[in-house]
């Protein structure tokens, strides 16, 4: 926030997209997830654990709700009285939505969570004091707190397992908040290579771990401002725009052929993840 | 019934109050011992949590805040009535406050100190606490001035420092009395130092009055702003059940309410342990009780406003949280809050209970139980019933570590408060003298008027 923001008409400011005056250039990382393709297999979640050095907290702590899955598959069931309830299961892969007007960013007392120029919601572990206000204000509850000192916990990372840690990713210490980063370590590496060759990152050059591991290709990820990217094409086809709080799909009352939506659009966090509504009947 | 006897000699006032610094009843030592034990429990819980991690508090995602924040609001709230009594009633020339405002002001200071501890035990990295302070540093990094939590930290520090100043300035003439009446020893040295060379000259009194009045005027807006800002921590967020514009006045009313109830409790304890029956009279008690009753009704009204606002807002998520409060896991506590906060104070409406000490003692404790439950019911149900089903977690229960620290905080507060009352005059001697003097004048005038009439 700058002084110029304070001088503006405040209500106007809160009602428009926060980066209107400085569009993301040359990168805006975004995602789209096809719920029709998702089978709820959890491969994305596991890939995320492996890529991002997420502690596996064990059964007991999981039962206390202290699990750390940055990428989680939420399950819901149709209540339509079918014989096998599981046939009505529906899946919603949920991770940090990298909101453009992120509710978590404004409330952090130490400014440990910020917006980056390429449209990510970053978390600075070294700055975090662990007030957990960000999590309290996150509508999606996708922020995970280090309740214990996992790096030194033998049950979480036995000595012989330390070799499997990803050297590109920090191991978070006790008392800090963490969350999905859109695999920022991969993005940084790709951007660096591209920069040294004097170009921007090409479509398909970088993948997130969840996208890479998804057997049905339900997740696409890329640079939204690159017209060649799959994400850009999908968002455009669905007429979903990053800086709108009501998309074409929802403006039509009679329903529409469009499938793209973002979660909690009306709260105006402007998420960077678009979901494609499911159209096919449940699994069978 | 008189607030105070008009014929108490000034020497006797000095003697009575000075006696409280020397030999209280045995109960004092019992209370002190219990307080130390309770504080010990809290400290051991914190040591355990600090070494092991916040997880031992049995918090989780989504229940990231727990009893720590609830009790933090409770203690902040407790601090408000000291200012009400010492500053607001001072400006309103309500002279019945004079024998009791000193301990109320001490209560303000110590409950703020207790509240501050809860911020510390709550944060995940206690050792990096200073990141949230706006101090100049070589990295050029500042805290986030958008965050209500930061406003909170600033408001509390300002309020705490002003309260300490107010307590100290108001005590200077009494410290001089203590200095002059105390036998040689460390306490006399302490009083000599703190009395700042007070001799009671006209000039000193004039400066003293102006200073005291200035700080009183400064403190009142601070008191209101502090709890409004604590309310902003919730009202400014977008969690269901918190996003309510009526929160700031609701919080301030709740704060005054629990503070007044605590004053009744401490009034009764001090009156007995320090033999202050002559000064903390039942007539004064009656006035506080009536004040508390009025505030209780304001709080009840604002509570109803909040429920109505949520109900008619047609915000489904907030409504679901309200229904969850009344019917879900927390229902017994929520209804307990309604009972203790709105029904129990009706006892105060009956004149015969307004001076009945055992009844008042029990009632005031129940009121504060209700107010603690209120704070908990603001925190927990919102976390347990988030915006959409995956974020629901109705069964998470605070662990013994959390309860231990809540328990310990009462020990810490009592410890500070009791030590204060033994070391410093907890009844304002010079103001009681003023009070007696004004009443004598008044008495003489009316006698003279009566004689004239004959």
Q: How is this structure best described in words?
A:
The complex is a heterodimer of chains A (284) and B (454). With 284 residues, chain A is α+β, with helices and mostly antiparallel strands. Chain A has a single domain (23-276), classed as Alpha-Beta Plaits (2-Layer Sandwich). Chain A has ten helices and ten strands. Chain A has helices spanning 3-7, 10-15, 43-51, 59-63, 103-107, 133-137, 184-196, 209-213, 230-237, 248-251, and strands at 29-34, 72-77, 89-94, 113-115, 121-123, 144-145, 177-178, 219-223, 260-261, 273-276. In chain A, the strands form four sheets. Chain A has a four-stranded mixed sheet. In chain A, a hairpin with a 5-residue loop joins strand 4 and strand 5 (121-123). Chain B is mainly α. Chain B has a single domain (24-393, 400-440), classed as Up-down Bundle (Formate dehydrogenase/DMSO reductase fold), CATH 1.20.1630. Chain B has helices at 10-22, 26-52, 67-78, 80-91, 101-122, 148-181, 186-194, 202-235, 247-273, 282-313, 316-327, 331-343, 357-384, 400-423, 429-453. The radius of gyration of chain B is 23 Å and the shape is globular. The mean pLDDT of chain B is 90. The interface between A and B is large, with 44 and 45 residues.
């Amino acid at each position: 926030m700058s002084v110029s923001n304070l001088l503006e008409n405040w209500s106007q400011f809160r009602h428009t997209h926060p980066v209107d005056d400085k569009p993301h250039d040359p990168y805006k990382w975004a995602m789209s997830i096809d719920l029709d393709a998702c089978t709820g297999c959890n491969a994305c979640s596991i890939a995320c654990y492996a890529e991002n050095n997420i502690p596996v907290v064990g059964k007991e702590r999981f039962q206390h709700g202290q699990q750390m899955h940055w990428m989680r598959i939420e399950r819901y069931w149709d209540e339509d009285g079918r014989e096998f309830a599981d046939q009505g299961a529906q899946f919603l892969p949920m991770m940090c939505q990298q909101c453009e007007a992120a509710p978590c960013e404004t409330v952090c007392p130490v400014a440990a969570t910020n917006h980056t120029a390429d449209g990510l919601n970053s978390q600075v572990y070294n700055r975090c004091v662990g007030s957990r206000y960000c999590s309290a204000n996150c509508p999606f509850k996708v922020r995970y707190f280090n309740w214990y000192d996992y790096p030194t916990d033998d049950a979480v990372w036995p000595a012989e397992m330390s070799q499997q840690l990803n050297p590109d990713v920090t191991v978070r210490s006790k008392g800090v908040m963490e969350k999905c980063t859109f695999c920022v370590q991969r993005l940084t590496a790709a951007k660096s290579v591209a920069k040294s060759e004097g170009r921007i990152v090409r479509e398909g050059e970088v993948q997130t771990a969840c996208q890479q591991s998804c057997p049905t290709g339900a997740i696409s990820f890329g640079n939204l401002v690159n017209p060649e990217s799959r994400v850009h094409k999908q968002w455009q086809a669905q007429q979903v725009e990053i800086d709108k709080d009501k998309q074409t799909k929802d403006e039509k009352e009679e329903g529409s052929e469009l499938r793209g939506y973002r979660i909690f659009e009306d709260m105006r966090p402007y998420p960077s993840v678009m979901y494609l509504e499911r159209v096919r009947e449940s699994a069978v | 019934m008189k607030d105070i006897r008009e014929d108490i000699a000034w020497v006797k006032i000095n003697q009575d109050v000075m006696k409280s610094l020397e030999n209280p009843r045995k109960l004092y030592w019992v209370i002190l011992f219990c307080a130390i034990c309770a504080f010990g429990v809290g400290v051991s819980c914190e040591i355990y949590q600090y070494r092991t991690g916040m997880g031992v508090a049995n918090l989780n995602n989504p229940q990231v805040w727990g009893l720590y924040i609830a009790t933090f609001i409770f203690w902040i709230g407790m601090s408000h009535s000291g200012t009400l009594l010492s500053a607001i009633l001072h400006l309103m020339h309500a002279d019945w406050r004079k024998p009791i405002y000193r301990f109320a002001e001490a209560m303000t200071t110590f409950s703020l100190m207790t509240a501050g501890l809860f911020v510390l035990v709550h944060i995940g990295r206690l050792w990096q606490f200073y990141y949230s302070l706006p101090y100049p540093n070589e990295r050029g990094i500042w805290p986030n001035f958008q965050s209500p939590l930061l406003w909170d930290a600033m408001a509390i520090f300002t309020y705490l420092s002003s309260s300490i100043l107010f307590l100290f300035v108001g005590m200077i003439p009494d410290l001089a009395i203590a200095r002059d009446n105390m036998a040689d020893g460390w306490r006399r040295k302490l009083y000599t130092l703190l009395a700042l060379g007070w001799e009671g000259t006209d000039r000193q009194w004039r400066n003293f009055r102006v200073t005291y009045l200035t700080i009183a005027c400064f403190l009142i807006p601070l008191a209101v702003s502090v709890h409004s800002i604590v309310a902003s921590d919730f009202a400014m967020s977008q969690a269901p059940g918190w996003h309510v514009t009526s929160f700031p006045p609701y919080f301030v009313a709740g704060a005054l309410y629990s503070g007044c109830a605590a004053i009744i409790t401490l009034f009764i304890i001090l009156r007995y342990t320090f033999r202050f029956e002559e000064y903390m009279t039942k007539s004064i008690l009656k006035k506080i009780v009536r004040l508390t009753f009025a505030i209780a009704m304001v709080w009840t009204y604002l509570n109803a406003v909040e429920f109505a606002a949520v109900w008619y807002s047609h915000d489904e998520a907030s409504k679901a949280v309200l229904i969850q409060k009344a019917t879900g896991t927390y229902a017994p506590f929520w209804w307990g809050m309604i009972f203790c906060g709105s029904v129990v104070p009706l006892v105060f409406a009956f004149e015969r209970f307004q001076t009945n000490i055992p009844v008042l003692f029990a009632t005031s404790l129940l009121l504060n139980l209700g107010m603690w439950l209120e704070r908990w019911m603001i925190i927990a149900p919102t976390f347990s019933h988030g915006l959409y089903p995956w974020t629901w977690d109705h069964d998470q229960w605070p662990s013994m570590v959390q309860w231990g620290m809540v328990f310990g905080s009462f020990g810490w507060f009592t410890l500070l408060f009791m030590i204060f009352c033994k070391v410093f005059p907890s009844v304002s001697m010079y103001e009681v003298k003023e009070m007696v003097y004004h009443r004598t004048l008044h008495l003489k005038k009316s006698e003279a008027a009566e004689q004239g009439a004959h």
